[in-house]
Amino acid sequence: MSASLLRAPFRRVAIPPVVSRTPRAFRNPAFRKYSTEVPKPEGRSNAALIAGLGLAAVGAGVGLWIYTSDSTKAKEAGTAVKSGVQSAKAAAHYTPTKEDYQKVYNKIAEILDEAADADYDDGSYGPVLLRLAWHSSGTYDKDTNTGGSNYATMRFEPEALHGANAGLQIARELMEKVKKEFPWISYGDLWTLGGVCAVQEMGGPKIPWRPGRIDGFQVQCTPDGRLPDATQGAQHLRNIFYRMGFNDREIVALSGAHALGRCHTDRSGFDGPWTFSPVTVSNEYYRLLFDEKWVWRKWNGPKQLQDAKTKTLMMLPTDYVLVQDKSFRKHAEQYARDQDVWFKDFADCVSRLFELGVPSSQWVTSEPWIMKNSDEK
User: Fold this and answer.
1) Mind listing the pLDDT tens digit for each residue in 194-227?
2) Does the bond joining 158 to the residue before it have cis omega, within 30 degrees of 0?
3) pTM for the structure as a whole
4) Where is the Plant heme peroxidase family profile domain positioned along the sequence (predicted)?
5) Which CATH number fits the domain 234-342, given the four candidates 1.20.140.10, 1.10.150.50, 1.10.3080.10, 1.10.420.10?
6) Extents of the domains making up the chain
7) Catalytic residue numbers, as ranges
């Protein structure tokens, strides 16, 4: 039986609806106009208006492109053009509507299922798209107000080559297909919307989301080491997540994303899925932590645990600390007992994670939106 046939019932296992400042050197007063509410269409084609704005911005970018000689400068020249388009939209008091972004969401939802035809992992690109959104947002440092989802700096080296981002070129290439069809959307908005789509389409809670991120430059890349190291313990998790502004309960809630996907030896060095249904968002991750007996796997790879019964599942050292640490454990036990509670907390934490590093003046709407699932269209 193909993975695509198995995936349909998985996605509907549990779907109860649950519902800073920019660094001074890069602050642009034009972007403040993003803070207006979304205007109603006035009978004009959104695509045509965006295209017109794009042509107005191309002039500035072409001159820069002529003088570029290597791929990095060329990419930054392209970014300058795209940022010019975003500035032009702001200056014209124009913002794509929620319906425009819903079309982007729908396109991403179509791509999720292409994994079955490509024989990719467990039949869905959802987990790797969620990982892209997570890793592009989780670099935020609240003390220096750097990193986060605003500039989508993983497009550039060295951030694209950071060890924690190994394999994410797959997700970025998938998102390029969407970008070609909707060139007006910023990469930060595209990647985080991809994460929202992945969670919702795989049976998870609705994730409040809003657009307004802008494309940045290589100079805004964050240093390596800001994402979790799976070989570490509880204090490391606190150092990483406290830096972003999350507390112990929120650390545990976000860890539940490991209900999805699997590790690969050619990326992280680890191997295997966390759950028996890695393309379904559920609280199975927490239940397995407590219900299964976990033993250290004897192999040539990095230190990881496996379930004693089937030896087909794995947990990372940073997963197992949710059982060992007293503060973490009480929250993990609650999430194992009550999926609705976890869905609510997870949706709130993921929504906030995806907004890290974005100045409030850039948001196109004061309140986040709820995007429709593909079966609600």
Assistant:
1) 999 999 999 999 999 999 999 999 999 999 999 9
2) yes
3) 0.78
4) 122-377
5) 1.10.420.10
6) 48-82, 234-342
7) 135, 274
